[in-house]
Design a protein that fits this description.
Elements (H helix, E strand, L loop, with lengths): L6 H19 L10 H22 L5 H30 L2 H15 L3 H8 L17 H22 L4 H20 L5 H6 L4 H18 L7 H21 L12 H13 L5 H6 L2 H8 L1 H19 L6 H28 L4 H26 L4 H4 L4 H10 L20 E3 L7 E5 L1 H4 L2 H11 L2 E6 L14 H13 L5 E5 L2 H4 L5 H11 L3 E5 L7 H12 L11 H15 L6 E4 L8 E2 L2 E2 L9 H11 L4 H4 L6
Parallel strand pairs: 2-3, 2-4, 4-5, 5-6
Antiparallel strand pairs: 1-3, 7-8
Length: 627
């Protein structure tokens, strides 16, 4: 089935893509601009479901024809943008970042990049997302996963002779469950991790469009007044959503019903008499809507690579204009020369599959395999820098050396004892990834002052005042810690405190004081945070043997950490000691940066400065000596 063209839907696409673009340029300009993605989901759900369902009830549906349309529509321009991104990444990204880029690109061929980014981030609003040029492609994975399942689901219902009302009821029920799961996500570690990126919490938004699409097949007739009122309500709904909803709210959640139902109202009740439809049919809006897919693909990679190339975190006015103009130019180019010809060309399903998927996949997987073994495509590393520099670079980017055999993030082992391992451990260090990065230091301290310590650390896992909202691994780890904690005289707490708490409140104080009733408690202070752009610039200059003269420390974030450290130090008493292991060590030690990223230390430098600074900390550590 071919749908009749509606210019107002293209105008709605323009609203969606411009909202996302503005948000990504500067989220202070439009705090809810990310909601443009939800609008895209509704539009896609409406159009594609209407096509699928109409073909099914007319016994004309063909999986081959449907997926060929999807291949022709999505893949040619997608893989062109991915290819250009790959070329730019060769010259812009640092070696580790390039490997991460290749790994994320690999996942696009599996239509699984949404799962990949959910695993690699702490959500859409994580600071690390600005380091991921392909992050925005998660939406395509969600849509394609949905359209693999939807035809099968509708065909099964149709074969079971389900009436349209029954089908709609089932879709409404599934949509409600999807929204409910997103609303309940804070109470589940799995849902919390995947809430923003997963199909199960995003299906509801697509299904809002699907339901409107099926209902629209019946060709209801509405008065001009009804059309105007309901499309106006919808328009106000999406405008207020992008203006008032922000990352401070749980999203997606039932809150997502506001923009998605609003978009559905505009689509379902839109007509030639509707003032909103006329507004959205304004030619510039319509044209932006036509190039919106290309524009969506280009805008984020242009933003990320520009920041990466210039080592900046914010744009000047001139750079804003550069990014906007370049994005529009690339979008027009790919729409005219790639997207449109690929959609209009006459070819078989197999030809489309080979040209637009199998050949790009074969080329990329060859590149990925060769690079995994030789690193030959890491141009920045191989062509420009000598091996000694590259070796030192890799040492700086390594969190913990696998040969050190620390138990960080692994299953619990009886052998998680370090320092002077001939001694029975009386110290237990527990912590998250910031506990993990202190592990080499505590190991060196034990060897120097003749004591041993058991170290149990797990990324993102908080022991103090923990609850069942944490991951299963974290809960299991904490239950194990509770079962053995009585065996230790001293407990070391080492956390990314600012990631766990905003202030050292009564609950935290009570939890630490309770530990101190039966143990000596040592609280390790948190290290300062670096500026991401400056961190990348430092490593780039290091590889090029250029002198770096910038400022690495992020003062704003580090001031908040300093305040938390002061609050923790204020808890000191006979049984509680605050201790900052780095003492006078700076961000760079012996010519190497001590950070493996913006807020985690690397093992190589940690061990080096530990050996120098430990003799100066004799008064503190000798009390733990087990001579």
């Amino acid at each position: 089935m071919k749908l009749s063209y509606r210019s107002d839907i293209d105008g709605l696409r323009a609203f969606a893509v411009l909202s996302v673009f503005i948000y990504h340029l500067n989220n202070n300009w439009l705090g809810g601009g990310f909601i443009g993605v939800d609008i895209f989901f509704v539009i896609s759900g409406f159009l594609i479901t209407k096509i699928i369902y109409t073909d099914i009830i007319n016994n004309q549906f063909s999986f081959k024809a449907f997926y060929q349309r999807r291949i022709n529509r999505i893949l040619p321009v997608f893989f062109f943008v991915m290819f250009v991104s790959f070329i730019v990444a060769l010259f812009v990204l640092l070696p580790n970042d390039f490997r991460d880029f290749l790994y994320s690109l690999r996942n696009t061929f599996y239509i699984a990049q949404n799962i990949h980014f959910a695993k690699r981030t702490n959500g859409y609003f994580d600071n690390d997302v600005e380091n991921m040029p392909l992050l925005h492609t998660w939406t395509l994975a969600v849509e394609e996963q949905f359209y693999i399942l939807l035809p099968l689901f509708l065909i099964v219902l149709y074969k079971l002779h389900a009436r349209e009302k029954t089908i709609l009821f089932i879709l409404v029920l599934i949509a409600f469950i999807s929204f409910l799961l997103s609303q309940l996500s804070p109470y589940s570690a799995f849902l919390s991790k995947y809430n923003y990126y997963h199909l199960i919490t995003r299906a509801g938004e697509l299904l809002v469009g699907s339901i409107a699409g099926i209902l629209s097949i019946n060709k209801y007739s509405f008065s001009s007044k009804t059309s105007n009122i309901l499309t106006f309500v919808g328009f106000v709904g999406i405008v207020l959503s992008v203006m008032l909803i922000s990352q401070k709210y749980l999203y997606p959640s039932f809150l997502a019903l506001i923009p998605t139902l609003s978009a559905a109202l505009i689509i379902f009740f839109g007509s030639k008499e509707s003032y909103v439809s006329k507004l959205l049919s304004f030619k510039p809006f319509v044209y932006i809507g036509k190039i919106s897919y290309s524009m969506y693909l280009w805008h984020w990679v242009v933003i990320v690579f520009t920041k990466k190339y210039l080592f900046i975190s914010e744009f000047s006015l001139a750079l804003y204009m550069f990014v906007i103009v370049l994005t529009f130019a690339l979008s027009l180019f790919s729409y005219k020369l790639i997207e449109t010809p690929a959609r209009q060309g006459e070819r078989s399903f197999m030809a489309s599959l080979v040209m637009f998927y199998l050949i790009p996949a074969a080329i990329f997987f060859s590149i990925y395999g060769i690079n995994s073994k030789t690193r030959i495509f890491e141009t920045k590393a191989i062509l420009n820098f000598d091996k000694e520099k590259l070796t030192s670079y890799n040492l700086q980017r390594k969190y913990l050396n696998p040969n050190s055999n620390f138990c960080h993030g692994e299953n619990i082992k009886d052998s998680c004892t370090f320092g002077d391992t001939l001694k029975q451990p009386k110290i237990l260090m527990i912590g998250d990834s910031h506990g993990g990065h202190y592990s080499p230091y505590l190991d060196e301290a034990g060897k120097y002052y003749n004591f041993s310590a058991k170290i149990l650390t797990l990324g993102g896992c908080f022991f103090i005042n923990y609850d069942n909202k944490q991951s299963k691994d974290c809960i299991k780890r904490n239950e194990y810690i509770k079962s053995i904690i009585s065996e230790y005289d001293t407990i070391v707490l080492a956390y990314s405190w600012n990631a766990r708490i905003k202030n050292v409140d009564k609950e935290i104080i009570q939890a630490i004081n309770k530990l101190a009733e039966n143990h000596k408690v040592i609280i390790f202070g948190q290290v300062p945070m670096l500026k991401r752009a400056e961190y990348d610039k430092y490593l780039d200059y290091f590889l090029k043997d250029k002198e770096y003269g910038g400022e690495l420390i992020d003062e704003n974030k580090s001031n908040k950490i300093d305040e938390l450290n002061r609050q923790l130090k204020a808890l000191e008493n006979d049984n509680i000691t605050y201790f900052y292991p780095l003492d006078s060590v700076g961000s760079v030690y012996n010519g190497l940066i001590i950070y493996k990223d913006v807020d985690h230390l690397n093992e190589h430098s940690t061990r080096q400065w530990a050996k120098e600074i430990l003799p100066k900390q004799r008064e503190f550590w000798e009390k733990f000596s087990q001579e």
